[in-house]
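Record format v2
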Amino acid sequence: MAIKDYIRERFFPHLWCPGCGHGIVMNGMLHAIEKLGMSRNEIVMVSGIGCSSRISCYVDFHTLHTIHGRALAFATGVKLGLPELNVIVPMGDGDALAIGGNHFIHAARRNIDITAIVMNNRVYGMTGGQFSPLSGYGTKATTAPYKNIDHDFDIAQLAMAAGASFVARTTAYHVKQMTDIIRKAILHEGFSVVEILTQCPTYFGRKNKLGDAAEMMEWFKDFTTPIGSKAKKENDDLIERGIFVQKEIPEYCEEYDKIIEHAMKGS
Amino acid sequence: MDKNIRFIQGNEVCVEGALYAGLDFFAGYPITPSTEIAEHLSSRLPRKGGKFIQMEDEIASMCAIIGASLTGKKVMTATSGPGFSLKQEALGYAIMTEIPCVIVNVQRGGPSTGLPTSVAQGDVMQARWGTHGDHAMIVLTASNHQDVFAITVEAFNLAETYRTPVVLLFDEVVGHMREKLVIPEPGVIPLVERLHTSVKDGVDYHPYLPREDGRLPMSDFGGVHRYNVTGLFHDMWGFPSSKPEIVQGLHRHLVDKIRNNVNQIMRYKEYYLDDAECVLISYGSSARSALHVVEQRRPRGERLGLLELQTLWPFPYQMIKDKCKHAKYVLVVEMNAGQVLRAVKRAVGDPERVFLANRVDGVFITPTDIRNILRIIMGKGA
């Protein structure tokens, strides 16, 4: 199926700013789905609130655009309701890890077969550039006019500690790697987290004098490195890209089916 | 002994009613005094191939049932005051997106942590107005086990009929007391199943275009029709829109589908109202004490009657006005500071004949409490 057929062109133009990374991620995601040859009817895209969450409206799957932070809780209901569906959840860093942080760690802990794609642009874009839990110490935002004194955390480490069975990171610059990782994440049976560093030139870039979209993407190229690379050993400030974890552990819906089987025997 | 006769807690009656109605999916979080509903369903649902999930919090439970409902399941969650507060945003989402679901609130004393193990009926207004924005709500209650069972089935039926969340507003006394329940044979209480679209594959399906009768046939996720569901104001495709005519139209539809059907949604019971000069109006466990007073005083020739409300919202203003037309006094019996009292005053027209018998101290309102107020109203001194 052509990539174009996955898009609801009727609902264009989209609302993203020029230079935004979310369109690149949507593109990567649709290419991954196309490579998997999946039918549109077997995919449910569930999202919360924010710029990245609008992806769900533009794609021709079963789409559920929910409330801020709770996409994974809705997605858990969808997945457990009909486990044969492929559930993909595009999220922003604030949506996934501030207001939705609790659902994030618990979905990981359950290892329910949902693919969470966290577009980390280190800012609340939809509301106009406030700092997020991923902005980091010393950054500027409309709610941190002097400087941000909140420390960020590492999404991949958090996801691994919470029990996610597939954890990866890539960037909007590395589209081929992104497509490949998303494809593997969707195929993986269990909770998958893909963190994608994306540029928000409008707010994060402007407030922190990081240049335009192209310059921000250059930064992704220059300041990230494959996991375990020699460059990382020489410069610990580099951000690692690639698959951190991919392990087979019992998936939640399959475990629940065993509960049903057991309970039915007893009744 | 008939195996359909049980002697159980009200919370378990709610479970039996939900299963009778066809519940397939429950998500919940432990909270007193509703926890037994989750406990029983964790055991009962998998035995019929259904699913129970204990979520990480109250909000997630509400969200999970909405998600599961979209896959075609009949869904429910249960909570009490603090949890009900937390669920309000997602409840509004279910209203806006017109997703059938049932929310049980076994009320306890509030505000805040309040009185976790004591009875209260303080969430009547929260059930109506707890989520933000103008909207309509269906809120049901009952005072005894047979009615708890029937009204629970009714909640599922109304949720499907009007594609809306329905709140079952029980209270701690009803939830925890034990009494007899006769479970009807399957088919005795009619069930409303999900109305699915008859639109075929390849033909445009408009998920948010009401039929002439106002109902919206659904298409389950995973089916042949792919559409968008959003909590934003949306057009007939489910796509976000802020066009004034779209907003106005959806707003009207969401309110009118319930407001225009007050008479279909209205459930109540009446005792000795024909010649009553004093009408007691009550609901939930308070109605048990009110009925006791009425039945005790009738043989003495005192013309007392009871109107027991089972549908609290949409509020049956006209019915109450009619039933109280000839009453000299109207006495609202409830365990809050007068939440239904205010609505009754609006309904009857001349509010000076409406009085309140209530308790707000976590203690169940007794017939004596009601009789004491009756003496004052009727000028017999305290």
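Chain A has one domain: 16-266.
The mean pLDDT of chain A is 97.
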